[in-house]
Amino acid sequence: MDYSTLSILLLVGTGFLAGIINTLAGGGSNLTLPALMVMGLPADVANATNRVGVLLQGLVGVRGFHKAGRVDTSDFIPVMIPTVTGGIIGGALASYAPEYILKPLLLTAMLSMTLLMLIKPSVISPPPGTVPYKVKERPRAWIALFIAGIYGGFVQAGVGFLLIAALAGTLRYDLVRTNALKMVCAVGFTSIALIVFIWNGQVLWIPGLILACGTMAGSMVAVRFAINANPKHLKWFLFVMTLCGCIAALISD
């Protein structure tokens, strides 16, 4: 991999944008995965290396939300169990999937999630004052979180939207607390997936940590705006950037 000044700036800049997008809604890996692949990383290594930035950005975001009193811990363990369990399965699937299968799946998943956001932009936001349900009161929430965990462990890109659908759509958390709890879940299954990837020697630490510098900075900035942020404004930008990144990754072979 080329560690020129331009390459480092590309990773940091892309990571910064991804950190903002992930904190406000989700889908930042739609930018970072193609960037890593364009710079020469195989799809499986890019998928694994990307988790370093995702994990550190998530820790920064959770800390910021927690300091603002926005992390709801009342249903913490029941929410984490299905997402982390799914993350173990997804991480194992991604780690052992052949590269010639993984790359098309990664690119297809990234574009599909972004198109879904544009075609059906139903990011659910319950009315103010709505009391959230507990996971035990909504069995379908457990299933939704489990599926989100599998997807997040496997590919990461766009998992934030699945978590928002599960947390806001089925459990009826308001969007701010949904984003905060979403990041807690992401830290959980990303940690498990990263352990699997490290065990299999698929993580390149230098590009991963360079990327993490950008994602952490982006998350710090985004937390300050999270309460009033409207993720709808990011959708067209995200789609165009994802399309360009995927095309560049495809022609880089």
From TrEMBL:
Q: Which InterPro entries does this chain map to?
A: TM_pro_TauE-like, TSUP
- Name the keywords, alphabetized: Cell membrane, Membrane, Transmembrane, Transmembrane helix, Transport
Bilayer topology annotation: Multi-pass membrane protein
Q: Taking the first listed entry, what is the main subcellular location of this protein, grouped into a coarse class? A: membrane
Spell out where the chain crosses the membrane.
76-97, 104-123, 143-168, 180-199, 205-227, 234-252
Write out the annotated subcellular location: Cell membrane
Q: Which family does it belong to?
A: Belongs to the 4-toluene sulfonate uptake permease (TSUP) (TC 2.A.102) family.
User: PANTHER family attached here?
Assistant: MEMBRANE TRANSPORTER PROTEIN YFCA-RELATED, TRANSMEMBRANE PROTEIN YFCA
Descriptive protein name: Probable membrane transporter protein
Organism for this UniProt entry = Rhodanobacter aciditrophus
